[in-house]
């Protein structure tokens, strides 16, 4: 039993080590955005065009997150409907 508990502890520890905080995620997003703005568009940090590129990248991420949220809500509502009514709605007629 001790071996099993140790195994579970190791698995959970490794899983949690892969988690990142919101500040770490924001730093990674900023770095990714900066890299895209520099490498794909040739913009230099400190310029107005670079700042606009970063803002646009943030807005695109926000729009994508909102779309993902809407998609999740649609799927959850559909799942609730299936749970109540069945796949073809036969239980809600």
Structural account:
By secondary structure, this protein is mainly α. It has one domain. Helices cover 77% and strands 0% of the residues. It is built from 3 helices and no strands. It has helices at residues 2-17, 22-39, 48-85. Helix 2 packs across helix 3. The longest helix has 38 residues, at 48-85.
Topology diagram in text:
Layout: H1 2-17, H2 22-39, H3 48-85
Helix pairs in contact: 2-3
Count all strands and give the number. Answer: 0
String of helices and strands: HHH
> What general outline do the C-alpha atoms trace?
flat
Regarding quaternary structure, what we see is single chain
- Helix % is over 70%
Mean pLDDT: 83
The tally of domains stands at 1
State the secondary-structure class: mainly alpha
Report Rg: 22 Å
Largest sheet: none
Portion in beta strands: under 5%
Ranges where pLDDT stays below 50 over 5 or more residues in a row are none
Measured between the Cα atoms of the first and last residue, the distance is 52 Å
């Amino acid at each position: 039993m001790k071996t099993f508990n140790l195994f579970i502890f190791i698995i959970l520890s490794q899983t949690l080590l892969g988690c990142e905080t919101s500040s770490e995620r924001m730093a990674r997003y900023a770095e990714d955005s900066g890299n895209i703005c520099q490498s794909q568009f040739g913009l230099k940090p400190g310029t107005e065009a670079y700042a606009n590129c970063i803002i646009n990248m943030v807005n695109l991420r926000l729009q994508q997150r909102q779309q993902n949220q809407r998609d999740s809500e649609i799927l959850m509502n559909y799942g609730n409907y299936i749970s109540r009514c069945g796949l073809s709605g036969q239980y809600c007629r």
